[in-house]
Amino acid sequence: MPKYYEDKEEDGRACAGVREDFKACLLQHDCVVKEGKKPSECLKEGHCKGLQVAFFECKRSMLDTRSRFRGRKGE
């Protein structure tokens, strides 16, 4: 689920909300916290897969010419 904060500075980059949630999911996952693995290793194991796919879809929609009319996904 997206997280919204009132006192947070605005990130103007594309897909910023999905990026932040994906990053938080990885850094707070037991794979990183308890086992001490790198976030990239946890990704290969399949952790936070839903957010990874959502972030990929959002970034891919930036290149899609049809998104001019529909808007970016995940915004």
TrEMBL record:
Any one GO biological process: mitochondrial respiratory chain complex IV assembly
Keywords: Disulfide bond
Biological source species: Anabarilius grahami (Kanglang fish)
Family designation: Belongs to the PET191 family.
This protein's record includes keyword Thylakoid: no
InterPro entries: Cyt_c_oxidase_assmbl_Pet191
Biological role stated in the UniProt entry: Involved in an early step of the mitochondrial complex IV assembly process.
Protein name in the entry: Cytochrome c oxidase assembly factor 5
